[in-house]
């Protein structure tokens, strides 16, 4: 059990130490922030980090803040220089300058509010002081000037002085506060009293610029030009002699911090930053030569990720000492673009477009400054470096060379050695070059044998298919060649040219899980031996995502590979069950920094890799990969962008409807060479989370009124996703939907309802009145109609009565006329009888007697009394018929009128003849004459005409 526990304790300790490893070869990545980026003054006198990770710098033009995405300058009212800055655990930022000190409080959406506390001090005491350092204690804040220290507690200020001596700087270490008095030396503050340390005289006037924790009993003291010292708890001080001692003395130490697993970083006035370990070994030296903007380090601190931040005499830089990537950069351009590299016999070789360069190499854990030199006669393009057996072979534009004692010995004059491929189970090697394939031997030393005549085109890719079959090719064509007669001859058995219409380019032939795959622009292909055709490697293509378009596959170990897609590198693991695990983020900082299609990654150890870059190389240490929890993003700014850009600083955000266009900026104080990605969701607007992107703000335009909640989260390069940050805001309803408008609507609705009801009542009354009036009118109309109908009936009855009377009168007239006819007929018969009448003796009557009788008969015929009576009755019955007819036709004579009357009574010609005592023919003649007088058309009936009068 003890051994078991010891083993796991050792394993845990080993993992902890591994995580704290700093590579000593190369230089960590340095991110430069020039003044044109942060837009403030050159000098940054102080630098500090808030608990949430925001960087604050004391700049000559004010307080600078940086949240990982946006720099902001917060000037003091008098535009005075800010000399010092410090942040407490609550995020309150304390600053000091000339005659002024106070604190800043960060507003919710990016603004800063300053509160001066220097007013608690007499102006005459403070006006000539500058606050150069601020120390935050447990309950007190120390604002330190060279003449005194102002202690702020419970909104009161008291001062600490050194009995007339000036101070240099205070230092807080392990809870103890030290002051250096000049010339008395180092003192410790105990119960508001300055007590001298035991060996203070040893450091007299040596200008202490930092005191850092070292171990349980000691602190580390850094002086300006006298090196480093250790001091124990009793105040015993001894010099600490280190390998870096001379460097620090010459560079003039100015500040220091403890970083990254017990290492120390010291900023200097003349030569940048030195990093040492607790053994005093120099681990890194970062200056203007290898990354810093300026060699004068005015301030130094570290962030939550253990990055070192330095405020410089000209700019601000971030040094990523905890990164897995360290760099060697050829800033002078003398080396050129790196195409290939090798570590061989304690040296590192770089093959570039300028030639072959060499520098000593003592491994990643030995500090050294690379010093690359061009190997004589190597000028020109170097394509490949291969360690074959115990030989380092260089494929060059001018041929093939063996590298021996930093000299080139040519072993082949065939130009352009692109690639070497060993033939399994033999002592031979194939080389692809400008003009085809060459054969080399491996042992006892690499030597050229022959160039095959059967292949004449450039060969860039070679890989063994089976014992004597090899796939070879270039960008345009892939061939299967077969060697025979112990590789003395060869023949092409299958040639597969690129389809001109497809524009597919071949990038290489590689082995993945012991299967040959062909890298193309269209993804990975395999060759089907049964159908003798290439086909997409669908299974792995689907799992690789975008890395199926890789142009290079470099094996690491069994089932572990580097997939390279135009300088974008992914580490791919293929598990035993076929699962593909892809890490495409760890090496993101190298994207676009390599020569496309000529990427070079070589192993130095199992965990260390050397990667060729455009202007140097990078060292990648997989032991240094550590996951750091990424904090949730902060909402750095909210702007109204409806009319220009104006900041919104209110905690409760309510935006007018006419200004419904906003921009929300967010940032995660995560500082790495790989950019942070963000994903957002606007509740009430978005349907799903957005895609991951590096853009750190989002515009929302033409938002409908209502409440919204904006959510955002961040993802670091290693795939760690932060918690979600939320901010709610409201787009006010338009004025016509505001509560005032709604109240107005309610009042208006009430008034409308009231007056509407009044109007409706009046309308109902009016309508009722109209209905009543209409009913009355209808009643009157009905009565009138009934009266009219009754009158009509009465008239009809009267007419009927009159008609009846007329009919009666007509009948009477007819009867009267018939009586007259009858009378005339009797008189005519009587006249005829008298003519035949004889006396008793048979003699005719006496003519005189007959004449008298005939005269009586004629007088009876001509008696007008019957006619007068008839005419009078006819006029009464027919409405003055004769009078009207006479008035209309004055030429009518009495006989015409008589004829008209008889015709109106619809009497026959015979009856009319009897009445007029004329013949029927005479009646017709009179009728004819009457028609003429009345001007009646022939087609018109005379009786009908008269009936119409």
Automatic annotation (TrEMBL):
Residues spanning the signal sequence: 1-19
Domain Two component regulator three Y, chain residue ranges per copy: 673-731
Gene3D superfamilies: Immunoglobulins, YVTN repeat-like/Quinoprotein amine dehydrogenase
Positions in coiled-coil regions: 792-819
Keyword Manganese tagged: no
Key words of the record: Coiled coil, Membrane, Signal, Transmembrane, Transmembrane helix
Chain ranges passing through the membrane: 735-756
Protein name: Transcriptional regulator
Organism from which the protein derives: Sphingobacterium pedocola
